[in-house]
Description:
Blueprint: H1 2-14, E1 23-32, E2 35-43, E3 53-59, E4 65-70, E5 81-88, E6 96-103, E7 107-116
Antiparallel strand pairs: 1-2, 2-5, 3-4, 3-6, 6-7
Amino acid sequence: xxxxxxxxxxxxxxxxxxxxxxxxxxxxxxxxxxxxxxxxxxxxxxxxxxxxxxxxxxxxxxxxxxxxxxxxxxxxxxxxxxxxxxxxxxxxxxxxxxxxxxxxxxxxxxxxxxxxxx
Length: 118
């Protein structure tokens, strides 16, 4: 019996911790020539290197990635925070794109914030 309890404890301890996803608070979009610049404001309960918002991306309505902004360090003392991504090419027929967030614990979250661009 003792062996079973120990095994269960190891399995539970080895499971990933689940945290709240990064939240898109605001998106500013500017067209410059034939490309777009996105200023995305995100809030997340960053706790340091083990759990922080580490990226966001622009996706088309089908989920195809159009642009990626990697975030290379935690922002636990800067919440919410805004980062930009320039030179995003968006097909002319699209009138809306999405912003999807990622963190070091949960990876890409399924929630996509829709943004009208035209």
